Each structure stands twice: as C-alpha cells, then as structure tokens.
Amino acid sequence: MSSFPRSTTTAVVGAALCTALAACGSGSSTGSGSSATNSAATSGGAATGAPVKNGAAQVAITLTDNDCSVDHATAAAGPITFTVKNESAPGISEVELLSQERILGEKENLAPGLPATTFTVTLTGGQYQIYCPGATTENRTFTVTGTAASTGASSTQQLLADGTKGYGTYVANTLADMVVAVGNLKTAVDSGDVAKAKEAYAKARPFYEKIESDVEGFVLPGKDATDNKFNLDYLIDMRASNLDPAVGWSGFHAIERDLWQNGKITDQTKTYAADLQKNVGTLAQLAKSLTYKPEDLANGAASLLEEVQSNKIKGEEESFSHLDLVDFAANVEGAQQAFAYLKPGLDKIDPTLSTQVATQFKNVLAALEKYRDDSALGGYKAWTPQLRATDAAALSKAVQALQDPLSRIAEKVATAQ
Description:
Blueprint: H1 6-9, H2 35-38, E1 46-49, E2 52-53, E3 56-64, E4 67-70, E5 72-76, E6 78-88, E7 95-99, E8 102-107, E9 117-123, E10 126-131, E11 139-145, H3 155-191, H4 194-215, H5 232-237, H6 251-262, H7 267-286, H8 294-312, H9 324-349, H10 351-369, H11 385-406, H12 409-414
Parallel strand pairs: 1-5, 3-6, 5-11
Antiparallel strand pairs: 2-3, 3-4, 6-9, 7-8, 7-10, 10-11
Domain EfeO-type cupredoxin-like: 53-133
Keywords: Signal
Signal peptide: 1-22
C-alpha cells in the first residue's frame, strides 16, 4: 500500500480496473495524458533507444532533489527493465509506469540512499507515462517502438505459463477465504465482544497481506481513482501513517484502532466492519478479471518483501495491535507462493538463482520461526517497540538477503526463450 494518501501519489487507474501487477497493458497505447504532460516526453531522458542487456532493454530512473530523470525516453518493444534509484529526493517516494491510466509497474517507499530497485515489464509499441508524484515534472512520456515478438511455446515458456495460471488460482482462493474471514470479523464486531473481535481480526488480516501486490490498484467501478474514498486499497488497508484527512478512517485498521486503542466497539466500529465486508466483496468480484505474466509474479513477490522492509519491520502496519509479524509472515508466504509457481521454469532458466532464492526463503522462515507463539493472536509474538529495538535489524538483514536475488527473477522470466 502506498505510504502516502493515494489521491496525492497515484495517477488514475480508471475504468479499466487493472492492477499494478496484473498483465493488463501490453497492448498498444495512445496515451491519455494532457498536452502539458506529453510535452515533457524527452525533457527527462535521452532521445536514443534504451540499450539491451540480458535480453531486456535497460532504463534508469533517477530521483534527485525535486527531479525525476529518465536516461532513455524510448525503447524497443519487448521486456524492459526499469531501475529506480532515489539519490537525494525526500519528497519523491514512488515511481509508476502507466498506460491509458493503468498502472503496469511501480516501485514505492523509495527513500533517499536506499539501493536501486527494479521492475521488468513486457511492452509493445505505443506511448506510456512514467509518473513520479512529487517531482517538479511528475509525468514523462515513454515511447515503445515496434511490436513485442511472440514468445512461442518452448518447454520453459509453457512451464512459466502453467505457473501463472496456478498462481491465479491461489489468488482467487485467497480472496474467497478473505471474504469468509471478514464476514466472521463483522459477526464478531456486531456481537460487541471485544475479545472475539480481536481474535477474528487477527485471523482475517493475513489474507490481504498475502496478495496485496496483486489487487491494490482496483477502484470502485466508475469512480475517480484519484480520490481515496473510491480506492479499494485505501478503503480496505489504510494505516494510521497514511491517513487521508479528507476521507478519514476506514477498513481493517479503523477496526484495529477501536479494538486496541479505544478498547470498545461502537456503532461506528460496526459501520467500519460493514463497509469492510462490502469493499472486500467488491474486490473479490473485480479481481476475477486478473490475468498474469511471469514477470508479474516476480515483481509482485519483490513488492511484498518491500512491504515487509518499509512497513512491517518498523511497526507501521499494525500500530495499535502490534500484529505486524502476522502480516510479515503473510507477505513472505505470498512472495513464496509466487516464486513457487515460477520455480519450475526458473530451474531451467537459471538453476543457480532458483536455488539461491529457495535457500534465502528458508532462512527468512527460520528467522520468523523464533517468534511463533501459538498462544498469541495470529500465532506470533507482538511486535512491540521493545522487541523491534532488539530484533528489527537482524530480521531486516534476512529479508534483504532474500530480496536481492528475488529482484532479479522478473527480468529472467520476461526474457526466457
């Protein structure tokens, strides 16, 4: 979830109802930005086409002061890897690639001084936009020339295709389970029993965290996606740290605040629960349109680990209940599932990398295991300020050791022959 109110950090994702990581926009795009936006087509990037390395065009996006510069404003159709680095721009924390108001790829939580991070997408000819909210020039046109070549149907590609279908089933099943769990949460809240509601909350939370990178771009049908009151990610998963005052509290964390900070269930709490149930049901229906490419799974897995590093490690996600380790484990599970569905194909593409990622997943899970507590809500110890002070650095190091090789998978699977 974006670390700032969605209305100020994201361009319209609109009626197409595509998500940031769904394969919703490889087709030709005519671009829908204003003339002022399109006039910036080459002001932040070289006019020559992006060079190709490892089978993918390479484009660098650098954030400095209030500027968002792109080293190449054009690239040939096919896999394109965008490498994003925030050198010195505290006011810019997010970069998105857009096509006809759809988010095709993004990187969030781009704090100055952090290592460069990448995402890979496969694009065909047309006009796209690189959106850097908070920059002096927020939108830059990115041009893709030619048509993406057919990948054929090699055994490796078939394995990857099978993996994307299997992962789609995993997402659908997780959403169905979330609908049930949120229904149970509403029932518990309606009963007025705070203890039962806390238990139901802890059981419901992991489902969204497992798949949030796949579904966070949806908005209510026919509504303005620049307004958080119509953005399903905000309505379901807003946090205290990214509260939009114009919209107010909503979703899981509004209920969390009432249960843990206020210690009571009010009529407003019951309204929060009813709205959450409605919005989760809408999301589950809209998400049935999702399809995936192999690189979507890889980008999504990397995004889930970035969520761990940027929010869970710091205790920002569950600031009232301190159930951050429950969400942490769910993010890791979602990332591991995406990897597992790609692994048969990746074993053929780069077995060394596949083994390295699998090993690092085991290390992260082992690091998490020491916090298991079957008597605690959600099955994990509370991630209190005291525990964070002593343990956050070690956990972060374990996640980073996984994140580094995991971030290389998207380019590998997007360029597979």
